[in-house]
């Protein structure tokens, strides 16, 4: 390779929905409709990936007590993870790329929820592909999130990973940490 590609900006965005060939076709149409908007961005790479999450994967954890992601092979069935990866050259184009990505995924999720009966939407967001504003932990479902919070309180009672480690997706939102300190539902120490 004689050319090394160096992008200044990148993003990932993800969502999950139930497996449906007609809906996969619709997702492609929605993605394709964004091309005229992002095409003027110099150096743009705008790729949509579709990855199956078959019940055979999630069923492997069932005999061991389930998984921390809140996925169930019997309740959820076959799922599809949808990932947008984008890179581009100029940070001046960040807003256009980001707003186009957010709108695309809002459209995908809206159609998955409301244009299909029954709904094809699934709350799960794959952590490694999620953008910072996506609710990854909430996507695990209430039971899984509460279990993770109990484990955190037991093994990290000072809240080091929730309060002092920058970045990542946290079990509590900042405002919940403040409220939880008064109610005893969040890690309370700031040491």
Give your account of this protein's structure:
There is one protein chain. The protein has helices spanning 21-33, 35-38, 55-59, 73-76, 94-114, 142-155, 160-164, 174-183, and strands spanning 9-18, 45-53, 79-88, 121-122. The chain has 191 residues and is α+β, with helices and mostly antiparallel strands. α1 packs antiparallel against α5.
Please supply descriptive tags for the structure shown above.
single chain; 191 residues; alpha+beta; 8 helices; 4 strands; 40% helix
What is the residue-averaged pLDDT?
A: 87
The number of helical runs is 8
- Fraction in beta strands: 15-25%
Identify the strand order in the major beta sheet: 2-3-1-4
Shape: globular
Number of β-strand runs: 4
**What is the subunit organization of this protein?**
single chain
What is the end-to-end distance? 50 Å
| pLDDT < 50 stretches | 187-191
What order do the helices and strands follow?
A: EHHEHHEHEHHH
Structural class: alpha+beta
The whole-angstrom Rg is: 19 Å
């Amino acid at each position: 390779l004689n050319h090394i590609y160096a992008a200044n900006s990148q993003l990932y965005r993800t969502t999950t929905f139930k497996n449906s060939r007609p809906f996969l076709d619709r997702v492609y149409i929605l993605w394709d409709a964004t091309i005229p908007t992002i095409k003027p961005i110099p150096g743009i790479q705008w790729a949509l990936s579709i990855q199956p999450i078959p019940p055979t994967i999630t069923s492997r954890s069932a005999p061991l007590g389930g998984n921390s992601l809140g996925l169930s092979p019997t309740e959820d069935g076959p799922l599809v993870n949808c990932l947008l990866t984008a890179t581009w050259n100029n940070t001046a184009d960040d807003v256009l790329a980001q707003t186009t990505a957010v709108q695309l995924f809002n459209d995908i999720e809206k159609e998955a929820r409301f244009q299909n009966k029954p709904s094809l939407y699934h709350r799960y967001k794959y952590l490694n592909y999620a953008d910072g504003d996506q609710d990854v932990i909430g996507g695990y479902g209430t039971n899984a999130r509460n279990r993770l919070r109990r484990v955190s309180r037991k093994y990290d009672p000072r809240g080091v990973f929730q309060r002092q480690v920058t970045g990542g997706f946290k079990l509590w939102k900042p405002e919940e940490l403040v409220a939880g300190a008064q109610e005893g539902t969040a890690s309370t120490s700031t040491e």
